[in-house]
């Protein structure tokens, strides 16, 4: 491998947060993966190897920040909202533009959160252990208006770092083995991602016309994921989470992709009724509660398009096994509090309809949230426990 090649990024595996002194914890960013090649200029590539350099002109500052070093960096591109929190919805305004107008660059600035170093002055660092790569990265002092090297925490309590991530409005954490090498193109258990909410990359295979306020546009999308056999498998429909701008953009993209039959077999008749089928080339991302027994996403909500992902590589995400050690709920079950154990970490989860607040580290956090909602702790009664995957 040479610095001139387009490197496939190493990928994390969904799992429970490990504890121990051989693990570093990092914040998980709600953006898109980006590899940056820096010498006398900058080249940027997405996770699927697409050149996105011209879409993010502010990252030209990597050249002076690198101070003459030739480097290949790995990190996440994020767009910040007015409170300084990474917003995937805001990033959508930049993701599809190869030459954004200066006004948009100013209105929706991005930040490159750099968390790994793959090449340094012509020498590959991928065979070095994570901790040594991090030390070399810190030595570059990459701190600018659009570039940051976020903190990593060694020998830290996962629950405490999860609490810090939640308080900052972040997406979760990633646990990385201190001695792990950088395994290009592999999804490795040396990196474990622990998101607050489950997300799934999907391929759009069709859509259904809307009614009422959505009359004349898209009512819902029909989706698929890559099955164990490598073929697409139906994953259900998603009809919430769209803005009007998203619907208009999707309609324009899907119109020329029409096909007479679905690209996926085994779609239930009720789901297929009235559907308009399209070629399976557009990748998006949804958040959802969990999987149903027949392989559909429960309570999915649209997050946005993922042009940085390939439609051939959208495997179903299987969450780690969790044990519910205790459950309390209000009369009728409209509010539910669960004590959740994932591996060695115990936390609390509040469920209210389709709203879920997870990874709460302390019962005091539960009480504070319920009190704000006008629910007294005394109103909770014991309920049935369950174990889920």
Automatic annotation (TrEMBL):
CDD domains: Adenylation_DNA_ligase_LigD_LigC, OBF_DNA_ligase_LigD
Sequence ranges assigned to domain ATP-dependent DNA ligase family profile in this UniProt record: 103-227
GO molecular-function terms, A-Z: ATP binding; DNA ligase (ATP) activity
InterPro entries: ATP-dep_DNA_ligase (IPR050191), DNA_ligase_ATP-dep_C (IPR012309), DNA_ligase_ATP-dep_cent (IPR012310), DNA_ligase_ATP-dep_CS (IPR016059), LigD_ligase_dom (IPR014146), NA-bd_OB-fold (IPR012340)
This enzyme's EC code(s): 6.5.1.1
Keyword Ligase: yes
Annotated spans, Disordered: 297-317
TM segment ranges: none
Keyword Methyltransferase: no
Keyword annotations from UniProtKB, A to Z: Ligase
Enzyme class: ligase
Coiled-coil stretches noted in the UniProt entry, renumbered to this chain: none
Enzymatic reactions: ATP + (deoxyribonucleotide)n-3'-hydroxyl + 5'-phospho-(deoxyribonucleotide)m = (deoxyribonucleotide)n+m + AMP + diphosphate
Gene Ontology biological process terms in this record: DNA recombination; DNA repair
Family, as annotated: Belongs to the ATP-dependent DNA ligase family.
Name assigned to this protein: DNA ligase (ATP)
Organism (species): Actinoplanes friuliensis DSM 7358
Lineage: Bacteria, Bacillati, Actinomycetota, Actinomycetes, Micromonosporales
